[in-house]
């Protein structure tokens, strides 16, 4: 190309323009290539598609950080605005499923009801959407579609909770919203109003929604005012702890799209309303250094050298600091609160929980959160189905729909719904 360019006379204004255009194109292409290209393990489902999805997501995230820097408001609020702008659906009933937005004890919910048949009691699933406690909505196309499909395929009543998000609220408000709505729904007169069988109700959620679903389940079993307990909990690639950012899956997938390790740590800090400058300390486990006595009682609950099989531990070594940064745990006692980190709950609570389905993906920093929880539940005598996807990545299920159409997302969704259909 340079040979060709040099054959033009340099003083020709036309040529100067052309050269500038070519140069600009080279720079833009380079930048796009640099931006789009991330190393992706070849065992992940449809790697090129994932790379493009990831670049789009990162591009929007970067623009939102920029918006925050120039004073246009909180970056997560901007991000949620962009995500939901194209995605929000009004409640649209179909021939088979009636959809309505209402509120349960002051919390917004979207309810999907299959056609009523006199005298028939239906099964029900309470669904809590994901998005790092800051993003997403029950009204989003992907979650609307998921719940609609479950309602139709299972002839079940779906309650999708529209809990409040960061930055409007922080821990424990997201959980409180999810809990209030769930508790309201579990009242005998409300269940009867929706023709729901009180013995066949599950709670479920993905990612941060899986975190909330797990916490709701733990809270319900010790709430003496609850008349009907859940039959099942189903957690899709849940986030369950913020004490070890160096589990084998965190180490293996720290730079795997679409959920990066540093992004997850920031979501945690936003959820717990912590100082953003703590993030570096947390990434190297300085917040859980071995000389911090507050952690003594929970260490065993996330000791992955015990809780994970050797096939996942491989050659990964625990990252344990000796002194670390004691100010983090001091400022954020919620890090040690099982309502934020259900993985660290005592065995006494785990023993009371309903049967569980836990879905994990190999290419996901949160894989080991889910697998350790499955192990702890099993050790507590709870029946657990662990459904693992070797080619799965974090968030795959919500990318099952067009235009992303991820094959692994569709498999996840179908297997998850089948499991619920068989066991609820
Ligand atoms: C985790 O468990 C292993 C094996 O029982 C033990 O040697 C190790 O000290 C434990 N680590 C922590 C941090 O408790
Ligand atoms: C841990 O180490 C730091 C730094 O030396 C010290 O300030 C702190 O008191 C130690 N904490 C405990 C519980 O020993
Ligand atoms: C982690 O803690 C050690 C002290 O144990 C300190 O030297 C180091 O700078 C800390 N790293 C970060 C990123 O906070």
UniProtKB/TrEMBL annotation:
GO terms for molecular function: acetylalkylglycerol acetylhydrolase activity. GO terms for biological process: lipid catabolic process. It holds the Pfam family Abhydrolase_3. Keywords: Cell membrane, Endoplasmic reticulum, Glycoprotein, Hydrolase, Lipid degradation, Lipid metabolism, Membrane, Microsome, Signal-anchor, Transmembrane, Transmembrane helix. It is an enzyme of class 3 (hydrolase). The active site is at 207, 364, 394. It catalyses: 1-O-hexadecyl-2-acetyl-sn-glycerol + H2O = 1-O-hexadecyl-sn-glycerol + acetate + H(+); a 1-O-alkyl-2-acetyl-sn-glycerol + H2O = a 1-O-alkyl-sn-glycerol + acetate + H(+); cholesteryl (9Z-octadecenoate) + H2O = cholesterol + (9Z)-octadecenoate + H(+); a cholesterol ester + H2O = cholesterol + a fatty acid + H(+). It is a single-pass type II membrane protein. One of its GO terms (cellular component) is plasma membrane. The keyword Ribonucleoprotein does not apply. The chain crosses the membrane at residues 20-37. It comes from the Eukaryota. Its EC number is 3.1.1.71. It is found in: Cell membrane; Microsome. InterPro entries: AB_hydrolase_3 (IPR013094), AB_hydrolase_fold (IPR029058), Arylacetamide_deacetylase (IPR017157), GDXG_lipolytic_enzyme (IPR050300), Lipase_GDXG_put_SER_AS (IPR033140). Residues 125-296, 336-397 form the Alpha/beta hydrolase fold-3 domain. Coiled coil: none annotated. Belongs to the 'GDXG' lipolytic enzyme family. This is Neutral cholesterol ester hydrolase 1. The lineage of its organism: Eukaryota, Metazoa, Chordata, Craniata, Vertebrata.
């Amino acid at each position: 190309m340079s040979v060709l360019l040099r054959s033009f006379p340099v003083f020709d204004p036309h040529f100067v323009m052309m050269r500038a255009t070519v140069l600009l194109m080279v720079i833009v292409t380079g930048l796009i290539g640099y931006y789009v290209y991330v190393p992706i393990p070849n065992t992940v489902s449809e790697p090129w598609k994932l790379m493009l999805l990831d670049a789009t997501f990162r591009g929007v995230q970067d623009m939102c950080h920029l918006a925050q820097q120039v004073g246009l408001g909180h970056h997560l609020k901007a991000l949620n605005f962009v995500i939901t702008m194209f995605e929000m659906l009004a409640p649209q009933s179909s021939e088979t499923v009636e959809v309505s937005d209402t509120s349960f004890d002051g919390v917004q919910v979207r309810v999907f009801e299959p056609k009523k048949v006199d005298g028939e009691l239906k099964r029900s699933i309470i669904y809590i959407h994901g998005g790092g406690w800051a993003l997403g909505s029950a009204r989003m196309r992907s979650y609307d579609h998921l719940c609609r499909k479950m309602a139709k395929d299972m002839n079940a009543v779906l309650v999708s909770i529209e809990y409040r998000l960061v930055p409007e609220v922080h821990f424990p408000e997201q959980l409180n919203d999810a809990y209030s709505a769930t508790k309201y729904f579990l009242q005998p007169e409300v269940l009867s109003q929706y023709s729901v069988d009180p013995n066949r109700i599950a709670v479920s959620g993905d990612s941060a929604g899986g975190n909330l679903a797990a916490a709701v389940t733990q809270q319900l079993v010790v709430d003496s005012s609850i008349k009907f307990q859940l039959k099942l909990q189903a957690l899709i690639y849940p986030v369950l702890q913020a004490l070890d950012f160096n589990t084998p899956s965190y180490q293996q997938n720290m730079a795997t799209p679409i959920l990066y390790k540093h992004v997850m740590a920031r979501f945690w800090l936003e959820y717990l309303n912590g100082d953003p400058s703590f993030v570096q300390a947390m990434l190297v486990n300085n917040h859980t250094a071995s000389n911090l006595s507050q952690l003594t009682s929970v260490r065993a609950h996330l000791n992955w050298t015990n809780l994970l099989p050797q096939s996942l531990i491989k050659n990964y070594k625990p990252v344990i600091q000796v002194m670390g940064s004691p100010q983090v745990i001091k400022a954020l006692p919620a890090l040690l609160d099982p309502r934020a980190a259900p993985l660290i709950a005592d065995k006494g609570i785990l023993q009371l929980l309903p049967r569980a389905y836990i879905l994990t993906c190999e290419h996901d920093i949160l894989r080991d959160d889910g697998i350790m929880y499955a192990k702890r539940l099993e050790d507590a005598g709870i029946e657990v189905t662990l459904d693992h996807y070797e080619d799965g990545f974090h968030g795959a299920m919500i990318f099952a729909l067009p235009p992303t159409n991820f094959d692994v997302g569709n498999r996840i969704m179908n297997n998850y719904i089948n499991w619920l259909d068989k066991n609820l």
